[in-house]
Amino acid sequence: MTPSECLLRMYALYDRCAAEFAFACRKGCATCCTQSVTMTTLEGELLNDYLAGQPDLLPLLDAMPGQTSAPPTTINQFAAACLLGEYADEPQPAWDFAPCIFLQDNCCAVYPVRPFMCRSFGSRVRCDSSGTAEVEPFFLTLNTVFLQCIEHLDRGRPWGNMYAVLRSIQQSGQANAETLAGLRIAEQIQGFLIPPDETERIQDCLRSLLDLLRGAQGKQEK
Ligand code: SF4
Ligand code: SF4
Question: What distance in angstroms lies between residue 71's CA and the mean position of ligand 2's atoms?
């Protein structure tokens, strides 16, 4: 299984794992579609390939912001620091609430290949009426575990704001984490952030995720 195939299978697995939650999310509800999405390079390549086959969407890229910011650590760096008791409460960049450049008439123009972070948006109540998303804690744990595995799958390559990663792919050969401010390098999993009382509930999804990662790793090592 190639990393790309593994990523697509992870997305499909996530749909099955998240099916137990009831969301108020509907097509056309898009308060969550901001410019603060992060992704891996592998996710960016999927998105970039899709855009290359949809010339009518290419003008959207003209609106890519020149300056972006990303969290000070990747999710796996954050998890490792927490597990070692070394987590420092570093200042987070302000959330950029400007609408995502791929938002067209309140719908996602790249929906089939949207990054995992977009897939993980969900709320029990409409965010536009309540002012914020409402989710149960287990949903956050599930999202974190998927984010960790998706980062692990692409370890060693740039990770960060969606537009910065896209730009790094389009400038490949020149761009890397050093030359593009704000990008980090995806890291491997050192451990999961799963509260003890959620271990049993998440074990089937986690086992399936780890099987997928092993399948992709086996292919990479051949
Ligand atoms: S997360 Fe909030 S804004 Fe996004 S689709 Fe769901 S209800 Fe709408
Ligand atoms: S890529 Fe699509 S789903 Fe993600 S924030 Fe942009 S418009 Fe929304």
Answer: 18
Per-residue pLDDT, averaged over 43-69, amounts to 92
Task: Give the chain's domain count.
Answer: 1
Asked if 35 and 181 count as a contact pair (C-beta separation under 8 A), the reply is no
Of 138, 180, 185, which is closest to residue 159 (Cα–Cα)? Answer: 185
CA distances from 193 to 38, 198, 199 (A): 19, 10, 10
29/33 Cα distance (integer angstroms): 9
Please give the residue range of the domain that contains residue 62.
Answer: 3-221
Closest ligand to the CA of 110: 2
Model pLDDT, residue 91 = 64
Q: How does the average pLDDT of the chain come out, rounded? A: 89
What distance in Å separates the CA atoms of residue 152 and residue 189, rounded to the nearest whole number? 6
- Measured in Å, residue 119 CA sits from the centre of ligand 1 at 11
Q: What residue owns the CA closest to ligand 1's atom 6?
A: 25
pLDDT, tens only, 159-209: 999 999 998 898 875 555 554 667 899 999 999 999 999 999 999 999 999
CB atoms under 10 Å from CB of 17, counted, come to 20
- Does residue 76 contact residue 189 with C-beta atoms inside 8 Å? yes
Residue with CA nearest ligand 1 atom 5: 25
Cα angle value 132/103/39 (rounded, 5°):
75
